[in-house]
Amino acid sequence: MQRRFDLAGKAIVVTGGSRGLGLAMARAFAEHGADVVIASRKLEACERVAAELRERFGHRALAVPFHAGSWKDCERLIETVHADLGRLDVLVNNAGISPLYPSLEAVTEELYDKVLDVNLKGPFRLAALAAARMADAGGGSIINVSSVGAVQPTTGELPYAMAKAALHTMAAAMSHAYGGRVRVNVIMPGAFLTDISKAWTDAVHAHVEATVPAGRCGDPEEIVGAALYLASDASSYTSGAVIKVDGGWSYRPG
Predict the structure, then answer these.
(1) pLDDT tens per residue across span 219-249
(2) Is residue 246 part of a domain?
């Protein structure tokens, strides 16, 4: 069983990997033997995490500045990974944004485009480029990080939820497109105690805890099991799947 989850020799890219769920997954991948690429907006934060992974686990770790909404950055990231590590086995499309807005009619074209670029356009382009390389090299795994908003959207995050729902569609189609050589799946997290949750009011915390069947928010470490499964050979027959890691939230009544 340990061998099935072994990631030794694999090169894994985690977008948005400098904090939150991305950071938890990056640490887990490195702990299980992978070389990890931390790709995020702020180079300094990426470098800090890459240095930590190298020191703690002794594997290669690369920091790459990356804007998830930029078509050109997607191309540059893939080229950089192959130039430095020589391969790409797993891509985690984790980067995302969900800016606040007062009402649906107040959503500006600029906000809408920004949200769809980061949460959908970039992940699509990055997945397409990665999958083509993976298929030529014999196979790989792509993990899209979605949100419970994809299936239970609210008016306060609608563009974000629309983009996340589209990742499910993308995984379903791409799982067919590469003839079984590239597995494409989705992790759908619920409410987690990441940097974003620090801005929540006590009322929001209380509402979430009362709503989630598990009675609490998730710890970032609790995303790791699903991520390791989808990144490793343990999921060799899993593709086009949506794995919910939400404390039961997406099945709440009402």
Answers:
(1) 999 999 999 999 999 999 999 999 999 998 8
(2) no
Q: Nearest 5°: phi and psi at 67?
A: -100, 115
At 21, which CATH number? 3.40.50.720
Structural domain of 155: 3-240
Dihedral-angle region of residue 52 (phi above 0 means left; psi in -120 to 50 means alpha; beta otherwise): alpha
68 lies in a domain?
yes
Two structure tokens written together for 147: 């949100």
Check 101, 112, 160, 229 and give the catalytic one: 160
Distance from C-alpha of 12 to C-alpha of 182, rounded to nearest angstrom? 14
Enumerate the H helices of 138-179 as residue ranges: 158-177
Distance CA 233, CA 108 (A): 43
Q: Is 112 labeled as catalytic in the residue annotation?
A: no
Q: What are the pLDDT digits (tens) for 209-221? A: 888 888 888 999 9
Per the structure, how many domains does the chain have? 1
